[in-house]
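Hi R.,

Here's the chain you asked about this morning:
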Amino acid sequence: MVIPREAMGFGDVKFIAAIGAFLGLRAVFFTIMAGSVIGAIIGLLMILIGRREWSARIPFGPYLALGAVLWIFLGPALLAAYWNWIQPPPI
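And the predicted structure, written out as tokens:
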């Protein structure tokens, strides 16, 4: 699949590298996942209420920052809750 425009700039890559340097590898994976989910939800809401069009670019950096902040304050607790939900302890 060829995208006619640049999908993600190298600023996002450098930002993720900085997050990894300061917070660790687990934070990088959490940040990318959380940022993607948050960005998708907000992007869809913006499209549904008519503030954006389908072809509009959505900056990814703010959602990565929000994902990193989530990791700092709630990351390990959210990961533990997720793993317990996926694989509950034996009875």
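The chain is about 70% helix and 0% strand.

Let me know if you need anything else.
M.
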